[in-house]
Design goal:
Length: 308
């Protein structure tokens, strides 16, 4: 009985060895794994082709063409991490395949856009840019910029909006300019932001929603710049900024404050008639609601008129 059991064990081990080692030997295989992979690839059976290419690599096909097939196949079935690992190994030996790697990463990125996978999009483009930082990506840059805006990375978003601006069609330019302006304003760089909002106003109809938004943002930035200029003693610059707020006419809730600040600067400069006009405009805007600002304007009017 023990001899029979030992026989079964020996036979079982032989079968197991054949199952495990048989596919790896390839000596009696009428069709090499690489050829099978190419045939499957031609039939668009990419996952099956990848399995054959990997088998070919295990069987000793460490040549560059086999490694390229493995990397390319991983990219084609959207396994970015595996593709990147395979390409890193290949490019360490054969950097001349860099263009192919970039092509595969960008193709993967565009498929990610088509299915709405922003995470895959970002990973694929970043992989391509790691190989060629100045790579032009006109069709992908806007989506990347929006992704980085939504994830709270304004500096990265700004980089991709600027990339997009360089090659954007004319009808897309105002949107991109507006987004750049928003980012700059959020970073406290209102000087630069106003320039972008002004560029938007030059490119869209005056009565459009986009123009209204750009005017509001410009007015808000101009008020902030006026405040900063007053604090640093740049009186002339402050006056110009507050007058810009008044010219834009928005934000509406800052108009009375802008007129008052204009009056204060003109009063300090001894231009009393102009200051008086500003204080009266404050009263017109505050109307019956009055408030502290209106009371201050009345006191200034009395000072101008009666010297009190």
């Amino acid at each position: 009985m023990n001899a029979v059991i030992d026989g079964f064990r020996r036979n079982g081990l032989r079968v197991l060895a054949l199952l495990v080692l048989g596919p790896l030997g390839g000596c009696d295989d009428p069709e090499p794994a690489l050829n099978r992979g190419d045939r499957l690839w031609a039939d668009a059976a990419y996952t099956d082709a990848l399995a054959e290419y990997r088998l070919a690599a295990v069987q000793g096909g460490r040549d560059e063409s086999t490694q390229l097939r493995v990397a390319h196949a991983y990219a084609r079935i959207d396994q970015l991490d595996r593709a990147r690992e395979a390409y890193q190994r290949l490019l360490a030996r054969a950097p001349e395949y860099t263009d192919q790697a970039i092509h595969d990463y960008l193709a993967l990125a565009r498929r990610a856009v088509a299915r709405g996978d922003r995470y895959a999009l970002v990973g694929a483009v970043e992989a391509a840019l790691s190989l060629r930082p100045d790579l032009p990506i006109p069709d992908l840059a806007p989506a990347l910029a929006r992704y980085y805006t939504d994830t709270g990375e304004p500096a990265r978003a700004l980089e991709f909006y600027q990339r997009a601006l360089a090659t954007a069609p004319p009808d897309s330019v105002p949107v991109i300019l507006h987004q750049i302006g928003l980012i700059l304003a959020s970073q406290g760089n209102c000087h630069a932001a106003i320039g972008y909002f002004s560029a938007v106003l030059q490119r869209v109809p005056a009565r459009s929603e986009r123009a209204a938004e750009a005017r509001w943002r410009s007015g808000n930035c101009a008020f902030e710049l006026g405040r900063q200029a007053r604090q640093t003693g740049e009186i002339t610059a402050a006056l110009e900024h507050f007058e810009a707020v008044i010219e834009f006419g928005v934000p509406e809730n800052l108009q009375d404050q802008a007129w008052f600040e204009r009056g204060e600067i003109l009063f300090a400069l001894g231009r009393f008639d102009e200051a008086l006009e500003s204080y009266r405009r404050v009263l017109d805007l505050t109307g019956t609601r009055g408030g502290l600002l209106a009371e201050r304007a009345r006191r200034r009017i009395d000072q101008v008129r009666f010297g009190t």
